[in-house]
Amino acid sequence: MSDSFSNRISTPKRGVFLALIVLIFFISALVSLVQLRESIQILEARYGTSVWSMFQLRIEMRRFYDALDYYHEDEHDVERIQERYDLLWSRFPVLLEGLDGEHLHNVEQGTLILQNAFSELKKQEAEVFEQLASDPRSAQRVRDAISPHLAAIERLTLENYHLNNEAFNRGDAQIAALQQKLVILILGLIISGSLLLHMVVKENRRNRYQALHDSLTMMPNRAYLRRELTDLCNRRRPFAMHMIDLNGFKDVNDSLGHHTGDLLLKAVAARLVELVDHHHKSLTCRLGGDEFAVLQYGVATEDEMQPVIRQIIDALEDEFLVEGHACYIGASIGSVLYPEHGHDASTLLSRVDMAMYKAKEQGPTSSARLFQLEMDKWQQRRHQLNRDLREAIASGGLHIQYQPIVSLSDGSVRSLEALLRWNHPELGPISPLDIIDVAEQYGVANELGCWIIERVCQQYQQWLESDTDMPPVSINISPSMYRLDLVDTITQLIRKYGLSDGNIWIEVTEDTTMKVIKEAEIVLSELKEHGVSIALDDFGTGLSSLSHLQQLNLQALKIDRSFVKDIICCETSAALVKNIIAIGHDLGMRVVAEGIEDRDSAALLARYGCDYGQGYLFSRPLLPAQIPGFCRQYGLHQSVLLMRAG
Ligand code: C2E
Ligand code: MG
Ligand code: MG
Q1: In the chain, N or C terminus with fewer CB closer than 10 Å?
Q2: The three-state (H, E, C) secondary structure of 287-331, written as one string
Q3: Ligand 1 center from residue 419 Cα (angstroms)
Q4: For 304-324, what is each residue's pLDDT tens digit?
């Protein structure tokens, strides 16, 4: 079967085809076995005939008869006759009791003739062994007695011979027919066996190809890259590896759908092959998701890598037109050099990953970073944090501080933001952003998120037990928690600790919400139904559009500190913040300004109509025990601003 033939068979049809061939193979094999058995039986029947035994008997009988004929009253003659007698005697049991005799049933009176001859022979035993030596006429008597039986045996021998001959001829014809069938069957076996072998070899080759190639782009995959890296390291050939993560790919995927996302990935793959691999000595692989790697052969220095890096960025920053949609993406590229940055595939892959991660941190625009040894320390720190985080969650190493959010008009405390704290025994205080980042990367985010929500609800219950009037607390939600059953988790914990509607708020960031906009929309509207209000955190730093803001049914908008901190000295920042406040109000939201550190900013924000403020000017994050006192001190009527100013 030619390759093109097997390629023309689609996968489901290939299964049926294979099953058919296997069936033919087994049927042929089975029928061949049956035919073979039949042939053997025929042959056994042929070789098991009694012809030879009958001839032997006839010869022995004739010899005995002749010996009697030549008897001359000689002592030797007597011995010879007795010897012949014994030999003849021994031929009968073979035919009367053995398998050979069975064939004689087919000859008319065959067995009877034999039995009569044998009994006659037995009767002559006394004559042969006792009379013959003394009485010469005895030979004549024995001869006369045996003679009719000799004639009968000779006739029986001939008839048996003819019968067997007919059976022989019949058997030959049967065997010839069987042989013909066998030839056809063996031909079937050979053909179906060869087809099977061909398909197995092809399947094997296909499996190997699939194991080493990406099914969407048909590019070499991570396994292929690892093999290639190991090979290059073994041969000590210098090379560079660039790991590429596409900036903005997730937005395309989320907003235009997975189908468009897949088409974009194919277009990226094709462009990298065409613009990079075809012009440089390089090989592009797809590692999964929106990650690609380019192996640049024969490169030993940072300078030699630059043209390829430039080419990758140019190739990816150019517009992609996918199904009529203009898509704009970029690249975060991490690079390593062999042997400078590692001597084996695992080290190089892990280090290029770190470099890529660092490049990604540099921002939404395209950027490239070469691995540096300090990155190892950064990675080790992350590993250590990951190891210790689970332990810290379980053993109470984490705690939560609460930062008041106040009304900018009267300074009263309007809500609290729960902020995670971890004082690591060796590394000191760890930023909550780092904790969340590690938790997200190593799959602890949901466990940590649940712990935070429960801890806050528990704390709230404790406050309520001593102070009846408490402002709501907002909890920051990390990205992967959308996939957790967030609504159930929060509502169950609210119920467990006896809290009421409005006690708990949540804060979501633009980036995480926009990345899972569909999930977020459902989760957030369900939470709203359960009395949990939602604030959009760090507004202005992420990817949200105004239409998304409308879509999400948010109750508060928190303007990021990066805008707020410059409003006094920078008119653009001031204008921007003023407009964000107006948009927030137009969309029916309360607006919170984050990171207010000075009175002038607070006053300007108040003039712009900003509802609430959060920042060191009012209070740093406080321990839970300090909160009731703070709320009592500034309460609903006293102005924190005025107190601070006074
Ligand atoms: P965020 O939600 O925007 O929280 C406000 C951050 O600004 C806090 O930093 C707070 O301490 C800081 N901040 C408040 N006022 C000022 C000010 O006047 N000046 C300056 N320089 N900073 C101020 P923190 O506690 O380091 O938290 C950083 C970020 O970590 C948070 O930003 C939030 O995104 C995240 N985070 C904190 N706790 C949690 C948590 O429990 N869960 C999740 N998922 N994320 C958390
Ligand atoms: Mg927040
Ligand atoms: Mg914030």
Answers
A1: C
A2: EECCEEEEEEECCCCHHHHHHHHHHHHHHHHCCEEECCEEECCEE
A3: 6
A4: 999 999 999 999 999 999 999
Terminal alpha carbon distance of the chain: 95
Tokens of 100: 């050979």
Distance CA 419, CA 412 (A): 20
Residue type (1 letter), 625: A
Percentage of the chain modeled with pLDDT above 70: 93
Q: Pocket residues for ligand 1 (CB within 6 Å)? A: 403, 418-420, 431-433, 436, 452, 476-478, 507, 537-538, 561, 594-597, 614-616, 621
pLDDT value, residue 478: 87
Q: From atom 21 of ligand 1, which residue's Cα is the shortest distance away?
A: 595
DSSP assignment letter at 622 = B
**Token reading at 321:** 């037109």
- Give the pTM: 0.62
Which of 476, 508, 510, 596 to mutate for ligand 1's pocket (most ligand atoms within 8 Å of CB)?
Answer: 476
Ligand 2 centroid–CA 476 distance in Å is 5
417 CA to centre of ligand 2 in angstroms: 7
State the amino acid at position 466 in one-letter form: S
Q: Is the Cα dihedral 265, 271, 276, 278 positive or negative?
A: positive
**Three-state helix/strand/coil letters over 541-571:** CCCCCHHHHHHCCCCEEEECHHHHCCCCCCH
**H-type helices in 467-560, by residue range?**
486-496, 510-515, 517-529, 546-551
Which residues on neighbouring strands pair with residue 242, listed in sequence order?
A: 294, 335
Q: Whose CA is nearest to atom 45 of ligand 1?
A: 476
Segment 19-37 mean pLDDT: 81
28 strand-pairing partners: none
The CA-atom distances, in angstroms, between 180 and each of 31, 174, 187, 191, 371 are: 13, 10, 11, 17, 74
8 Å CB contact between 375 and 354: yes
C-alpha of residue 592 to centroid of ligand 3, in Å: 10
Residues 240, 231 contacting (CB under 8 angstroms): no
Check if the beta carbon of residue 379 is closer than 8 Å to that of residue 350.
yes
Closest ligand relative to 592 C-alpha = 3
| pLDDT at residue 286 in the model | 97
In the reported structure, the alpha carbon of residue 514 is separated from the centroid of ligand 2 by a whole-number distance in angstroms of 16
- State which residues have CB under 5 angstroms from ligand 3, the bound ion: 537-538, 594
Kindly list the protein residues that place their beta carbon closer than 5 angstroms to ligand 2, a single-atom ion. Answer: 476, 507, 537
